[in-house]
Amino acid sequence: MRLKVCGLRQAGNILEVAGLEPDFLGFIFSPKSKRFVGEELSEELLKSLPASVRKVGVFVDQSTAEIMQQVRRFGLDLVQLHGAESPAQCAELRAGGVGVIKAFAVGEAVDFAALEPYAAVCDYFLFDAAGPQPGGNGTRFNWELLRQYALPVPYLLAGGIDPSMVAELAHLRLPGLYGFDVNSGFETAPALKDAAVLRRFFAKLRPDSVVLPAPATDAVRASTPSAAN
Ligand SMILES: O=C(O)c1ccccc1NCC(=O)[C@H](O)[C@H](O)COP(=O)(O)O
Question: Which pathway does it serve (predicted)?
Fold first, then answer.
C-alpha cells in the first residue's frame, strides 16, 4: 500500500521522514493552514530528495499561475487540490506538466456522479473527511461509503488516520484504494511529524521493506543550523 505523509516544512523533519521512504510527501501552500510552508520550506532540500519520494504541493482555490509558480520553484511532482477547483483547472495544470490529485471532502455520502468529470483529468483522487477546514481536520469518515467506488482513478484515503488504526488499515480492502495519507495523527506540533511513530506505522503496513536511517546530505547540512558544523 502506498503511503503519503502530508504537512511538513522543517528541514530536519523532512529528511527524517523522507528517510522512511514514503511514496509521497505533502507540503501545504494554503496560507490559512497552520501547516503553511511559509518561508521555511527549502527549495534546495526538496530538489535533493530522491525521485522515488514524490513531492506534492497542497493548494486550496489558488490560481493556475500561482500553483505553477510553486511547482517550478520547488520542483513539485504533483499538486493536490482541496477547494472547488474545476475539471478544467485540473486539465490546465496537467497540461503544464504536473500530476494532479483532486481531494474530495466526504460527509454523510459520496456523490460519485460529481466525480466523473474529474476522472479524465486527474492522476489520483483523495477522499478526506469533511470538516471546518479544507483539510487536516483530524477526523475520519465512514470508509465503507467507498465500497461503491467504480471509477478508474486510484485514490488515497485520508482523514484522521492515526497509529491506533494500523491493524484496521492493513486489512482494509476497498475498490480503487491506492494508499493512505497521514497528517495530524502523527504530529508533535503543527507540521512536525513524529518520525519514530511513523517508522513503526510504516513497518506494519509495509512489512517487507527495509528502511535505512536518513542520510545527512549536503542540503540538510546547509539548511539545518544544528547540523552545520
Ligand atoms: O493539513 C492541512 O492543514 C491542510 C489544510 C488545507 C488543505 C489541506 C490540508 N491537508 C491536506 C492533507 O492531505 C491532509 O493529510 C488530509 O487533509 C488529512 O489530514 P488529517 O485529518 O489531519 O489526517
Answer: Amino-acid biosynthesis; L-tryptophan biosynthesis; L-tryptophan from chorismate: step 3/5
Which residues constitute the domain of residue 51? 2-227
Q: CA torsion, points 112, 118, 124, 130, in degrees to nearest 10? A: -50
What stretch of H or E contains 18? helix 11-18
pLDDT digits (tens, 9 = 90+) for 133-172: 999 999 999 999 999 999 999 999 999 999 999 999 999 9
This prediction has a pTM of 0.91
pLDDT band at 207 (very low <50, low <70, confident <90, very high): confident
Name every protein residue with a CB atom under 6 angstroms from any ligand 1 atom: 6-7, 26, 28, 30, 33-35, 58, 60, 82, 128, 133-138, 158-161, 181-185
Question: Grid coordinates representing 156?
Answer: 488515497
CATH code, 139: 3.20.20.70
